[in-house]
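Methods — Computational structure assignment.
A single polypeptide chain was analysed. Its primary sequence is given first, followed by the predicted tertiary structure written as structure tokens.
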Amino acid sequence: MNKKVSPKTFSRYVAIQALYNSNFQNDYEIIKNDFLDTNEFKLQFDFKMNLHRYKLNKNFLKTLLVTFNQEKNKVDGLIESNLQKNWNLKRIPVVLLSILRVAVTEMIVSKNTSIGIIASEYIMFTESFFTDNEYLFTNAILEKIFINLKKKNNLNE
């Protein structure tokens, strides 16, 4: 994240961190409080980042978190049904699963957002967390899910 970051991009990043945390703290109200309701919102990075330059789109973040909380089974089902036969959600690294969950949630709530924008954002996040070719995995899963959702919901390309 070394370019100028839009409020939506920053909100996506925060949503990934929130869903990552939810793997260890399974109480949605605590996660919501930590990421949306508190006045002392803090993110931890492994690198220096001047956060006051970045604005958070709290409405977008809230929509992602609330929708995931309500549609967790649907989101996880879409991810799992598009994995290879010998794969399941437990085999996916927690960070990568969090990225996929937020991406799929955004596909569900932002039907008018181009799949190109959604995919490129989450591929960028995957590349920032992983050193190998995990971005190819992210791209393949998101493409399959998009095709399935498009058939059902007439999503935009």
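Note: Residues 7-153 form a domain with the N-utilizing Substance Protein B Homolog; Chain A fold (CATH 1.10.940.10).
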